[in-house]
# Entry
Amino acid sequence: MITFYGRKSSDNVQKTLWMLLETGQPHEHVELGGKFGGLEDPAFLKLNPHGRVPVLVDGDVVVWESTAIIRYLAAAYSPGTIWPEDARVRAGVDKWMDWAQSRLYPEANRLFWRLIRTPEADQNAQKIAAGLEALNAHLGMVDDQLAGRAYLCGDQLTMADIIAGATLYRYYEMPIARPVLENVARWYETLSQRPAYRQAVMVPFDELKGRLAF
Ligand SMILES: N[C@@H](CCC(=O)N[C@@H](CS)C(=O)NCC(=O)O)C(=O)O
# Structure
């Protein structure tokens, strides 16, 4: 039985939980972190010495770091689809996955902190505008990649969609100017049809507004 730790309001938890739900594996979800606390408990620190969520425990396997969890779940429970077994195909997925985690997600996350988590009185309009421009430029590349494809790397959901697609709910819910990105909009619509995406990612973020604490 899998035990999954992490508060539903965390974006790193959301993408990981989305992956877990896609596998259909039975699991127990324990909300930790943020208003739930518990990250400094000795028992939790034994699982993840960094005191961060998400963490996944599957029997004697303990995994932390959201991308490591996604790779583990994809390899263990979705071989051939979300985890392509052909190394050449997987390399194509891996590069978009790692780019999404190292470039797209940080830009989306930075904008979210500047615009949503920072109290209005402390917001910096110039930094918000610069961040939005950078994020829109990244999404422009995603739009190009999605031309003629249902998903980022072809006609099936892969790990790359999980990491990159998890940024879209907040992107479309934030009060920002969005350029016309037809392929990204179509892809978001496709992802929104997936029950796992709706449950894990499309989570209102009101409780995070103006809140810098965690
Ligand atoms: N690089 C780590 C980041 C983990 C992380 O910073 N998690 C945040 C939530 S997004 C956390 O545990 N924050 C403390 C809290 O929620 O109380 C990952 O991808 O899993």
About this structure: The pocket of glutathione is lined by residues 7, 10-12, 33-34, 39, 52-54, 65-66, 214 (CB under 6 Å). The chain has nine helices and four strands.
